[in-house]
Amino acid sequence: MSNVKKLTVSSFRKMKERGEKIAVLTAYDAPTAALADACGVEMLLVGDSVANAVLGYRNTLPLTLAESLHHCAAVRRGAPEAFVIGDMPFMTYQADINDALINAARYLKEVGANAVKIEGGAAMAPVVERMTASGIPVMGHIGLLPQKLLTSGGYKIAGKTEKEAEALIKDAKQLEEAGAFCIILECIPAEVSKQITAAVSIPTIGIGAGEHCDGQVQVVTDILGLSGDFTPKHAKRYANLHEAIHKAFTQYVKDVKKAKFPGKENSF
Ligand code: KIV
Predict the structure, then answer these.
(1) How many Å lie between the centroid of ligand 1 and the Cα of residue 26?
(2) Among residues 51, 97, 153, 262, which is most buried (max CB within 10 A)?
(3) Of ligand 1's atoms, which has the minimum distance to the CA of residue 146?
(4) Is 175:159 a contact under the CB 8 Å cutoff?
(5) 22 in ligand 1 pocket by Cβ < 6 Å?
(6) Which pLDDT value is given to residue 199?
(7) What 3-state class would DSSP assign to 22?
(8) What's the pLDDT tens digit per position in 145-185?
(9) Out of 186, 191, 243, 265, which one is annotated catalytic?
């Protein structure tokens, strides 16, 4: 079963106005997307985190547009009515504004996404403006920017000084002015996120940005405990699938070795 009401960009703005929190999760494949949608997740973000969460890359930088579109299509097939956002990979929107537009449009035209996400604040406002003016809804993303890993020197909390906090508020306002329908705030102190959330009328969706955001997003593999022992500070484990899968695989191997599987009930 899908979300009962089909959600649009204006639904999310109304949710902010009503003070109703927005639940967002990343999704990378059809069965997970179907489950998330059936459980009431209101936006499915096909994050570029698919690179490290699923595809075995060390970070998000190597992800290609083709890989991202491939996963976006799977999510759309799993959740035909959900609000799906394609997260544009590194260097598919930064180099040239026309290329950015053409690449963004592929998410809508080829895989049926509802929107795209790009990283960056004020510097990306012209790109957001062109996309929005062309009919492509854009989710902004400020704070910790994983695609800037090599220039920032690591994954660091953003907005810790007054100057940085002011710059983030300015970033958010410019993204709103450019037409972004919502903004991800990643790893920003809760008090700064509160100010950003109050400064804009579009929803803020936090990850490691405290309780004052209009919604929350999490990386699905983190909340399912799929990645072994490591859980980032901003995530909460709602399940331990790593342990459950390890147990299941171990038992399967034992059963095959001891000829306990297949049983009569699995044979024809
Ligand atoms: O790719 C991703 O998972 C993200 C997070 C902010 C949710 O962009």
Answers:
(1) 7
(2) 51
(3) 8
(4) no
(5) no
(6) 98
(7) strand
(8) 999 999 998 899 999 999 999 999 999 999 999 999 999 99
(9) 186
Q: Is the CB of 49 under 6 A from ligand 1?
A: yes
Q: Does the annotation mark 17 as catalytic?
A: no
Strand-pairing partners, residue 24, are 43, 217
Q: What are phi and psi of 32, to 5 degrees?
A: -70, -40
Residues 36 and 79 sit within 8 Å (Cβ to Cβ):
yes
Q: Which atom of ligand 1 is nearest the CA belonging to 60?
A: 1
pLDDT of residue 32: 98
Based on its alpha-carbon atoms, the radius of gyration of the chain, rounded to whole angstroms, reads 20
Delineate the domains of the chain, giving CATH numbers in brackets.
9-237 (3.20.20.60)
- Dist. CA 175–CA 185, nearest whole Å: 12
Two structure tokens written together for 189: 């102190």
Q: What's the number of CA atoms in the CB half-sphere (13 Å) around residue 126?
A: 7
Q: What type of residue is 236?
A: K
* 43-46 and 115-117 beta bridge pairing: unpaired
Residue 184 CB–ligand 1 contact under 6 Å: yes
Q: Is the pTM of this model over 0.70?
A: yes
SS3 assignment, position 45: strand
